[in-house]
């Protein structure tokens, strides 16, 4: 206990109180994005442990809560990235990655979007769908996947993503465009339509 | 569909951009006209919006959200791990 007291005296940061103060908040933040209780608990745990290792560098420029949330976001991205590493690399050749490939020289659709048969409310609940999403994410480059996860899954502002990935806004928009184009096609192929249906004209 | 103002390739890029920042008026106007006439770009737009709805943070009503709490088991485990971790460091 002496040891703990001496740390808390030196700095206003008090790790003893983190779990009590921010545990529920961070857990909630994670669960609505990851949608898996066990995974969310693990992510929160990793966040606190990582924070414990780095709080001496914490300058107090942001609030404790903001600082911890920042670490948490990285852990959530890692979670989706690690998941994607586990997913098998298959079908990579059958899907085009460059948005340009979806269009002909006149800029008209070559690989046309297909009608999706899905009830969004039901999908949100389905673990199977999350698996397909992980699988599709696994086929993106790290940079595209990170930008996409931060933007669409975590709901981060583009400005923050630019800072995190150290890129310009225009660059970020292009990356997100490519990632979205690819993922919508991947989900379309693996989830929303039957495999036999393919429009190429 | 090849509209006089924007072709599908450009429209898809702008629709994607519109999810990230506000577009200039002429682009918003151009997109709207294009979407009225182009079934595939409309579908593309709907898909991006649906995708966001499905995979984005699943926010319920505030009250429901606040009832989500870290289980006491996980809470204790985390506290214990943090304590061990700090003892090791010291």
Any chance you could write out the topology, listing elements then pairs?
The complex is a heterodimer of chains A (201) and B (90).
Chain A: H1 2-10, H2 15-34, H3 37-54, H4 64-86, H5 120-125, H6 127-137, H7 142-154, H8 158-165, H9 169-192
Chain B: H1 8-18, H2 25-37, H3 39-55, H4 62-66, H5 72-89
Helix pairs in contact in B: 1-2, 1-3, 2-3
Task: Describe the structure in your own words.
The complex is a heterodimer of chains A (201) and B (90). With 201 residues, chain A is mostly helical. Chain A contains 9 helices and no strands. The longest helix of chain A has 24 residues, at 169-192. Chain B has 90 residues and is mainly alpha-helical. Helices cover 71% and strands 0% of the residues of chain B. Chain B has 5 helices and no strands. The longest helix of chain B is centred in the C-terminal third of the chain and has 18 residues, at 72-89. The termini of chain B are far apart. The mean pLDDT of chain B is 87. Classes of the chains: A mainly alpha (201), B mainly alpha (90). At the A-B interface, helix 2, helix 3, helix 5, helix 7 and helix 9 of A face helix 1, helix 3 and helix 5 of B.
Compose a concise summary of this entry.
With 201 residues, chain A is mainly alpha-helical. Chain A has helices at residues 2-10, 15-34, 37-54, 64-86, 120-125, 127-137, 142-154, 158-165, 169-192. The radius of gyration of chain A is 20 Å and the shape is globular.
Strand content of chain B: under 5%
Termini Cα gap of chain B: 68 Å
Low-pLDDT parts of chain B are: none
Largest sheet of chain A: none
Q: Tell me the Rg of chain A in angstroms.
A: 20 Å
Spans of chain A of at least 5 consecutive residues whose pLDDT stays below 50 are 1-10, 90-94, 195-201
Number of strands of chain B: 0
Q: What's the helix count of chain A? A: 9
Q: Mean of the pLDDT scores of chain A?
A: 82
Query: What is the radius of gyration of chain B computed over CA atoms, rounded to a whole number of angstroms?
Result: 24 Å
Distance between the termini of chain A: 72 Å
Oligomer: heterodimer
The helix-strand sequence of chain A is HHHHHHHHH
Q: What's the order of the H and E elements of chain B?
A: HHHHH
Beta fraction of chain A: under 5%
Helix and strand content put the structural class of chain A at: mainly alpha
Of all protein chain pairs, which has the greatest interface, and how many residues does each chain bring to it?
A-B, 56 and 46 residues
């Amino acid at each position: 206990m002496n040891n703990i007291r001496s740390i808390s005296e030196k700095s206003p940061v008090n790790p003893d109180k983190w779990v009590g103060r921010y545990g529920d908040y961070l857990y909630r933040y994670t669960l609505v994005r990851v949608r898996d209780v066990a995974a969310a608990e693990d992510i929160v745990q990793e966040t606190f442990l990582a924070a414990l290792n780095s709080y001496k560098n914490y300058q107090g420029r942001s609030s404790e809560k903001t600082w911890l949330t920042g670490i948490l976001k990285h852990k959530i991205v890692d979670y989706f990235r690690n998941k994607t590493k586990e997913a098998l690399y298959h079908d990579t050749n059958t899907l085009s990655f460059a948005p340009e490939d979806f269009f002909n020289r006149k800029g008209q659709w070559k690989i046309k979007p297909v009608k999706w048969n899905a009830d969004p409310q039901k999908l949100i609940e389905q673990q199977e769908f999350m698996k397909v999403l992980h699988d599709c994410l696994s086929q993106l480059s790290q940079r595209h996947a990170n930008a996409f996860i931060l933007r669409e899954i975590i709901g981060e502002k583009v400005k923050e993503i630019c800072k995190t990935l150290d890129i310009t806004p225009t660059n970020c928009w292009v990356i997100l465009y490519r990632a979205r184009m690819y993922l919508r096609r991947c989900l379309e192929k693996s989830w929303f339509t039957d495999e036999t249906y393919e429009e190429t004209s | 569909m090849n509209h006089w103002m924007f072709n599908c390739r450009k429209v898809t890029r702008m629709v994607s951009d519109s999810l990230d920042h506000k577009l200039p008026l002429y682009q918003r106007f151009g997109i709207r006209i294009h979407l009225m006439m182009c079934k595939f770009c409309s579908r593309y737009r709907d898909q991006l919006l649906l995708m966001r709805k499905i995979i984005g943070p699943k926010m319920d009503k505030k009250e429901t959200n606040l009832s989500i709490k870290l289980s006491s088991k996980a809470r204790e485990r985390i506290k214990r791990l943090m304590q061990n971790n700090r003892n090791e460091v010291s």
